[in-house]
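Checked the freezer inventory, then went back to the computational side. Two predictions to log before the end of the day. The first one is the construct we discussed on Monday; recording sequence and tokens without edits.
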Amino acid sequence: MRGWLFLFCSGALGTILAHQMYAFCPENTYLDIGSSLDPYLYTGASGASRGCLLQAPEERAAESCYGRARAR
């Protein structure tokens, strides 16, 4: 398999897998997307596994991906 995209969201295991798979076949793309899918995979408090996910949606939208307020 060459030219494939692999997405990992399995904690530390994803990091290990991405590293090992890249060593085996560097022609693919390996991304560790972390807990970004938690709100879609889990309900309630389990889905809000990060502080940024606990914010109200309007507060979250007002911040950049670096946690600083956006220039308007």
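The second is the one RB wanted added to the comparison set:
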Amino acid sequence: MRKSRRIKGAEKRLVIISNRLPVSIEREEGQWRLRPSSGGLVSALAPVLRDRGGLWIGWPGTLEDVDLDQLLKASPQAGYGLKAVTLTPEERDKFYYGFSNEIIWPLFHALHTVCNFDPEYWTVYRAVNRKFADVVSDNVQSNDFLWVHDYHLMLLAQELKKAKIKAPVGFFLHIPFPPPDIFLKLPWRTQIIDALLDYDFVGFQTSNFRQNFVQCVRALEKQVTVSGKNPFTVMTVGQREVRLGNFPISIDFEQFASQAASEEVAEMAWSIRERLPDRELMIGVDRLDYTKGLPYKLDGFRLALERYEELRTRISLIQVVVPSREEIPPYHDLRAEVERLVGKINGEFTESGWVPIHYIFRHLDRDELLALYRTAGIALLTPLEDGMNLVAKEYCASSLDDEGVLILSEFTGTAEQMRKNALLVNPYDRDQMADTIYQAYKMPMAERRSRMRKLRRSVQEQDIFWWVDSFLKAAASSDLDAFPPRADEKLEEIVEYR
């Protein structure tokens, strides 16, 4: 016998389901505290759910024995509820570090040689998706719209179907979806495709990723018919239809621009400029990850200094690396390689009063980051593969004087939107990288302003609220206004036998 909770009421609710909750639980001075989580998904959705009724389901990031329900009731998140999914150490290691980040993450970023195709990872990945489905089942009502996020939970709709959940379920993939020649290397390729086709709606960042998925379905599912191209692809699976669309995720433009204009950020930007005067500052902000192409970026910058003597003493790269997943050996090795290259370049080119690279390895608070964005005349963002790249959009929103230049990898989802006004590079081409850095440095001010104004306008028009509205209109036939704030949620416990 198992207790299941169902929520009374007929109001439409938006239920977000992701690997992590928007808060994490940490011990401080012997007491458990809730801290806002970081990351692109939280940055994107927290402004949307703030002061709005709904529910967020996910793992709180702790394995210790904590009264999670009591802590989450005291959450500072306004207007929406939080529900935790608990994980054991083995589940954390084999579901998150294992299947999600040693298989799906590198494979979907076209780095299949890094994958560890351990069969035990698949077994635990399926079990954890079932565990998420149990928590969703206990807290869902028929009028909810369930919005599932990212590669950790690709099996969730299939598990909810087994639990007889009738609420509509949409899925959004924040990372790339690879072409068939990459995806078909996955031992569980058919099971993943079958599970994704159990969603009612599947969203991708770009049209290319959507087309890759269509090609993989055609290669593996002979009984599925495909029709339509824009704005949606429709797949007929037996007696039901699955719709596909592409929706580039974004940021809260107005919030970034307003905070970048604050007195606190202006003072920090002035302090940076005082410490590093009489030079062009170039900013790079990347999570510690082999998909970000950090060694390639550093090698391209080194070649620019070697090839263009004019850049020496006249340009400095401020490279921020945000710690991530250092428990996984390739990430630990990557950090060592990046720091070795920074030391080598600085040792080769440093002159009195000038250091080529200022390296920061830590999390920055929002004001620090915005001050760097405001100060930097060039942003150098060159991942090897990226679902979107919100740093590019943050930089544009924070470029209040319209004088910044964006150098962007052509292999980011952002490039599809920004290709006309950013300087696109192939991060594997160090000669092109070096020449483009010099081009950005020499770009006339009139051209800088023309390009950046257009970039800022595109980010402002297609901001995070546009993204949410677009997805919900396509997936749930509702826009954000259909999910009003709820002041009170009354719960009724129902005993079910399963």
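For RB: The radius of gyration is 23 Å. Residues 119-139 form the longest helix (21 residues). Let me know if you want it refolded.
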